[in-house]
Amino acid sequence: MSFEELLDLASRAVGGSVVAANDEFFAERDNLVNPWAPTFTPRTFGAKGQVYDGWETRRRREPGHDHAVVRLGAPGHVHGVVVDTAFFTGNYPPEATVEGCRVTGYPSPAELADADWFPLVERSPLHGDTRNRFPVDARRLVTHVRLTIHPDGGVARLRVHGEPAPDPHLLPDTVDLAAAELGGRVVDCSDRFYGSPGNLLLPGLAAVMGDGWETRRRRDGGNDWVEVRLAAPGVLQLAELDTSHFKGNAPGWAALTGGGGEPLLPRTRLQPDTRHRFRLTHDWPVHGVRLDIYPDGGLARLRLYGSLTDAARDELAAPWTDREAGGG
């Protein structure tokens, strides 16, 4: 599996933000973590020149380099980084370095400057108008990353793909065990023609229909489905199946089963453009869930609220208590 199939831990969709940059003269640092693909409209000029959908610094006339610091929306283990220079052709950085650190709480930019930074991507060449991909050895827990460009220029997006490692001390007794920001992940699905099934597990409400998962129209008498690996094993208590924005294309019915095939929610009628909540009454822990929709259509979000087992909570705590693995 490509590391790009893992969650983008830096994306604003999961709460990532750019907390500092030494320069953003031509284009704002915040664009680095926008979840959508970068765009470009030729001959669109502002007061400082051509408008770029990315982060761009002024031309350096003295030795040095530029940098931007990103707080990950979901701390975790980084498996790969993409430094996307889309549409930057004569003004991209020739080289870049990416570092990580682990700092608990909510440090200021000044405090982050003094953090124990360690390399994720050694100084490496970049190509213009390219998704520059760098695999990372994911041994250490990361809460922040620092992108350094040598010496200056523009980067459209910074993607930091990996596996979330939520701090169990901050988790309530009941939590959405399917949430992507906690480590829930889609492992298989029948169809993703109109929308990615991973959207089902993103935080917040879908803003438009395109923020959800939608399949093509079935003509074979079957049904569509998606399989979710929970962030950790737990006893599920409540399911939310949200068809918001899906009006003429919502599924007619849905059902939930555990990873071992045990029934959690029998085939149940759904309504268009509605947040449905269903109480679940089983009392055994599950590791994964399969959602079947009948016969096809789209959903905005899937929430699976439950309580972690004691063993699962201990497992989640391991990266935060192992200082050598976690760094910092």
From TrEMBL:
List UniProt keywords, sorted A-Z: Hydrolase, Purine metabolism
Residue ranges annotated for the Allantoicase domain, each copy included: 15-164, 183-307
InterPro entries (UniProt xref): Allantoicase (IPR005164), Allantoicase_dom (IPR015908), Galactose-bd-like_sf (IPR008979)
Pathway recorded for this protein: Nitrogen metabolism; (S)-allantoin degradation; (S)-ureidoglycolate from allantoate (aminidohydrolase route): step 1/1
| Root EC class | hydrolase
Q: Which reaction does it catalyse?
A: allantoate + H2O = (S)-ureidoglycolate + urea
Name the Gene3D superfamilies on file: Galactose-binding domain-like
Instruction: Give the EC number.
Output: 3.5.3.4
Which family is annotated? Belongs to the allantoicase family.
Note the PANTHER family from the entry: ALLANTOICASE (PTHR12045), INACTIVE ALLANTOICASE-RELATED (PTHR12045:SF3)
The protein depicted here goes by the name Probable allantoicase
